[in-house]
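ARCHIVE CARD
CATEGORY: sequence design from structure
SOURCE FIELD: tokenized fold
FIELD CONTENT:
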């Protein structure tokens, strides 16, 4: 009932679904729903941290679905098998190697010149 009231107010609803991989994939149901996309993403990562902290595949997939009226759209997903695919080019996707710690660019500080130097 509360979900219908949120839709009536013109706000989208975000549902976090757990998916079991296979042929065909099986939707294990809604694990969380909210009107805030950020809260849905936070829940998804917390769910992964609780259920599969080492990302060994205990949770095979998660998906966030935005529901607006009768329209449903996938807006975020996690897929264990795709996240551990060594052939993925993360530099091409993200612009940097996400598996390495960011060191930042080192530059020698530029000191301003004074009239006495």
């Amino acid at each position: 009932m509360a979900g219908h009231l949120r839709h009536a107010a013109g706000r989208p609803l975000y549902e976090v679904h757990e998916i079991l991989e296979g042929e065909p994939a099986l939707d294990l149901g809604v694990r969380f729903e909210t009107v805030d996309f950020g809260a849905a993403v936070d829940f998804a990562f917390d769910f992964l941290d609780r259920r599969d902290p080492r990302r060994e595949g205990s949770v095979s997939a998660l998906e966030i679905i935005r529901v607006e009226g009768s329209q449903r759209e996938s807006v975020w997903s996690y897929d264990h098998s795709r996240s551990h695919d060594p052939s993925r080019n993360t530099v091409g996707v993200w612009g940097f190697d996400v598996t390495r710690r960011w060191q930042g660019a080192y530059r020698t500080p530029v000191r301003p010149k004074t009239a006495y130097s």
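CARD ANNOTATION: Residues 38 and 77 are 14 Å apart (CA to CA). Residues 2-80 form one domain.
SHELF: design records, drawer C
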